[in-house]
Design goal:
heterodimer, A: mainly beta, B: 116 residues, 7-stranded mixed beta sheet
């Protein structure tokens, strides 16, 4: 099974500043990659996903992520954050060859945007 | 479009009492269904998943069980709750089919369970 490491548990950032959330996964086999956002007391919402094709993936709310196979990374970025981006962010991975349809999640990164 | 419902939204139960949480999906057929738990300060833990009616796979041995009595209904149960069962329970679904799309999971709003 894949293991997913989100390198930062907490990321404080000022409004309108850029943010990068780092995600690394364990296996070099073909994978599918996802980023989810969770606002307080809500379920997870899909931000973006990489299945194939271009390694730069654009998602909702101005977020984008870049898949780097050699570094087994899928870092999430936003050039200018808003107060409303305060949330917890989860990186998730599934194996291309897996038949169990399960995702491996990272521990999450809490982003706090300050004015 | 597809929607997923969970109820109740919040629940406070005494230790030793039974539990039933319900999840239903609309707008899709034969979805894969999942139950997750988020305990305070911990990540997402997959509890059960189902690829069809009556087909349940358990990920973690514990005092919880799951059932899928209908195609788009997934129920999480317990006969006797423990303090450690407190947490935020999330239901999710995915569409079986092409690799990649079947791995994309969509989450419900969650149920906050407090066991006292």
């Amino acid at each position: 099974a894949q293991s997913v490491t989100q390198l930062d548990s907490q990321v404080p950032v000022f409004e309108e500043a850029p943010v990068e959330l780092r995600c690394n996964y364990s296996s070099s086999v073909s994978v599918y990659l996802f980023w989810y956002v969770q606002y307080p007391n809500q379920g997870l919402q899909l931000l973006l996903k990489y299945l194939s094709g271009s390694t730069l993936v654009k998602g909702i709310n101005g977020f984008e992520a870049e898949f780097n196979k050699s570094q087994t990374s899928f870092h999430l970025r936003k050039p200018s954050v808003h107060i409303s981006d305060t949330a917890e962010y989860f990186c998730a991975v599934s194996d291309f060859f897996s038949n169990d349809y399960k995702l491996s999640f990272g521990a999450g990164t809490t982003v706090t945007v300050r004015a | 479009s597809q929607t997923i419902h969970q109820w109740p939204a919040t629940l406070v139960q005494p230790v030793g009492s039974p539990l039933s949480l319900e999840c239903t999906v609309e707008g899709t057929s034969n979805p894969n269904l999942y139950w997750y738990r988020q305990a305070a300060g911990r990540g997402l833990q997959l509890l059960f998943y189902s690829v069809g009616i009556g087909q349940i796979s358990s990920e973690v041995p514990q005092n919880l069980s799951a059932s899928r009595p209908q195609d788009r209904q997934f129920i999480l149960s317990s006969k006797k709750l423990l303090l450690s069962d407190s947490g935020f329970y999330l239901c999710a679904w995915s569409v079986p089919g092409l690799a990649g799309e079947r791995d994309t999971q969509y989450f419900g709003p969650g149920t906050r369970l407090t066991v006292l």
